[in-house]
Design goal:
177 residues; 2 strands; two-stranded antiparallel ribbon
Length: 177
Amino acid sequence: MYGQQNPYAQPQPAPAPAGRTLPEEAESPFRAIGGFLDFVFAVVVGFLLARSAFHTHLHAGAKLGIAVLAIPLISFANQALLSRLTGCSIGKFLMATRVIDIRTSRRPTLWRLTVRWFMGGLIAGVVFIITVWTNEDVPTSSRDWQSPVTGAESRGGILIVRRKHLREWLGQATSLR
């Protein structure tokens, strides 16, 4: 009331610069290599945790179970939790890319990042199983993931952009205020 904003209201999106609704999307190689680096990080750390269990008196099945459980947990911590805190995972940091929410142009919420992580793992698993089962390539098309608003590839309303493009876009947005 009296001109005060409701403290429980949803935050309003950042104003977009005239003529551009979002920063330029990162090119496919940057997104693919960043995702691959995230995968390698999760697998390496997961197996290092399992290897550290070799000094205990656990049998081999338990040690393999540690790796199988650790890899998705590390992947989630890297791709959802770290991305929520910093705007990028380790692979995205190395590739100088960031994740932003399409609606707000800011870091995505933990819920959106969790949905993106889960759907990415589910789809990668299904594609892997189909490929192994049928011994054929699975046709993939970025059109399956294109946003009807921006035409940009996204999962869960999240866009991967280059850090330099995000900085340029933020500079344009602040100069228009």
